[in-house]
Amino acid sequence: xxxxxxxxxxxxxxxxxVHYEPLPNDNPLIxxxxxxxxxxxxxxxxxxxxxxxxxxxxxxSIIKGSSTIPREPIAKMVPINQFYxxxxxxxxxxxxxxxxxxxxxxxxxxxxxxxxxxxxxDLDGLGDVGPLDKKKAKVMIRLEDAGENTFLLTxxxxxxxxxGEIFVRGLIxxxxxxxxxxxxxxxxxxxxxxxxxxx
Length: 199
Fold this sequence. Notes:
By secondary structure, this protein is an alpha+beta fold. About 25% of the residues lie in helices and about 35% in strands. It starts with 5 loop residues before the first helix and ends in a 13-residue tail after the last helix.
């Protein structure tokens, strides 16, 4: 996907009835965003959808796959409401990379995702173990009951990136608006050919 100008992002958000807030931060390398919109789906059904990495990541065009790490070997070290997944991500650069993601589930309304891409550095030459990419991600998904078979989705994210706010925001918020449109397609509110945020 490519970055989109702020004006275009705002126009798409208005057209899709998405409340879109680019959140300020004192650190220019932290890009934070909040979006929200009502969808025609029961909250419990929506929670089950978003709590399953294999199901909901298909709504993100840059995530090509997700594998959950089995709980059994690490069950004693991980709270019962947490699990880990590995996601195959392709952003602007089509080079495949993976992101290690920790999910924390707080039913019936909050899912927290925390991730680091490429968490292991190159060990050739006995170099230090560390992330190849210093970006970090924190995403909160909140689902509120908004009436019969309707829920209010609020997504709030913060990404720490090395490349700076101006470039990165246009990409991150493009991905989020595309996610909202993909969910609209999933729920048959719009057709696939009506998506305004194509990668």
